[in-house]
Amino acid sequence: MADSITSGPRSYLEPLNLRGRISKPQPKGLPLVNLGFNELPYGPSPKVAAAVAEASAQVASYGTPLCDGLRAALAQANGLDADQIICGNGSEELLDVIARNFVRPGDEVLISAYGYIQFEMVAARQGATLVKAAEADFTSDVDALLGAVTPRTRLVFLANPNNPTGTVLPVSELKRLVEGMPSDVVVVLDLAYGEFTGFDHCAEVHALAEGRENVIVTRTFSKAYGLAGLRCGWAHAPAAMMPSLYAARGMGSVNRLAQAAATAALADLAVVKARVDEIVAERRRVAAALADMGITALPSGTNFLLVRVDGKGAEAAEALVVHFFDDAGIIVSRTREAGLEDWLRFSLGTPDQNDLLLQSARNFMEGPA
């Protein structure tokens, strides 16, 4: 095994390396701007709002257990077979469902060094041994991942774009990964933030999974579609896996409102894409402005930026987290992964919210008057 870190099975109740959020009152009485959860700053589109309102009159009845209408809409929007789509209570439920199908205590789950923290939690719940492959410049390294595979490896989780770093592997590298992986190892390509890299990128990843019996692509409506509060995700998986995936999934885990909203959002893709375009433009603008101040952001394919104060360490990162809250009422995220203590993360808001963040960052870098 090359360039990897292995941690043995642990109870899912055992604390992970987490750093808490600010819980004190805002000292100036300012309204809070929460940029800490990678959410979109927009309200529902008119079509989504109307669909939720209509569905709310029927909340005494369960939603369709198999999400038939939503799966049909997803298949049409993405050029996929509806029989190879399963929906869940956010993509996080489906990550658990996948792990329960393929991982047993003592098996190995492989992720990149700064992979999504839910991957670690999923492995812990299964009593699996977590293996972290080294990264290159805070980006997943395909050679390191392939080199970390052992006879005990059962599952590989790879978020691309990644959370919390925001970095992206090109599809050519994803192809190398799936082609180099043993056929008995399941590869999960998590596209939670894929739309912010590009809808074409997402289509290419789905095409990569077509015809392969060990590749699953997971998606969510929580990010680009702005439906985080309704918890709806989906996965594109081989047809042969579907019976066992459904057996491990909650029977009615996608509620009626979530199904209605997600289906309406797919019928409102022009609005979704316009909002994604604005976030991407703001991502470029904010990163450039911060760089001019001496705050570096990693290259991002997501709706958030991971940043650090140039030449400074964890103390400066912590001070900036607190400063944003105290100075402007802005909530950002302390990084929760060992090795990223010098960094902090925030999602892109509206242009006005981003201007507020930039001014607060200038105040911090300039220091007391």
UniProtKB/TrEMBL annotation:
<dbReference type="InterPro" id="IPR001917">
    <property type="entry name" value="Aminotrans_II_pyridoxalP_BS"/>
</dbReference>
<dbReference type="InterPro" id="IPR005861">
    <property type="entry name" value="HisP_aminotrans"/>
</dbReference>
<feature type="domain" description="Aminotransferase class I/classII large">
    <location>
        <begin position="32"/>
        <end position="359"/>
    </location>
</feature>
<dbReference type="InterPro" id="IPR015421">
    <property type="entry name" value="PyrdxlP-dep_Trfase_major"/>
</dbReference>
<keyword id="KW-0663">Pyridoxal phosphate</keyword>
<keyword id="KW-0028">Amino-acid biosynthesis</keyword>
<dbReference type="InterPro" id="IPR050106">
    <property type="entry name" value="HistidinolP_aminotransfase"/>
</dbReference>
<dbReference type="Pfam" id="PF00155">
    <property type="entry name" value="Aminotran_1_2"/>
</dbReference>
<feature type="modified residue" description="N6-(pyridoxal phosphate)lysine">
    <location>
        <position position="223"/>
    </location>
</feature>
<protein>
    <recommendedName>
        <fullName>Histidinol-phosphate aminotransferase</fullName>
        <ecNumber>2.6.1.9</ecNumber>
    </recommendedName>
</protein>
<keyword id="KW-0808">Transferase</keyword>
<comment type="similarity">
    <text>Belongs to the class-II pyridoxal-phosphate-dependent aminotransferase family. Histidinol-phosphate aminotransferase subfamily.</text>
</comment>
<comment type="subunit">
    <text>Homodimer.</text>
</comment>
<comment type="pathway">
    <text>Amino-acid biosynthesis; L-histidine biosynthesis; L-histidine from 5-phospho-alpha-D-ribose 1-diphosphate: step 7/9.</text>
</comment>
<dbReference type="InterPro" id="IPR015424">
    <property type="entry name" value="PyrdxlP-dep_Trfase"/>
</dbReference>
<dbReference type="InterPro" id="IPR004839">
    <property type="entry name" value="Aminotransferase_I/II_large"/>
</dbReference>
<keyword id="KW-0032">Aminotransferase</keyword>
<dbReference type="InterPro" id="IPR015422">
    <property type="entry name" value="PyrdxlP-dep_Trfase_small"/>
</dbReference>
<keyword id="KW-0368">Histidine biosynthesis</keyword>
<dbReference type="GO" id="GO:0004400">
    <property type="term" value="F:histidinol-phosphate transaminase activity"/>
</dbReference>
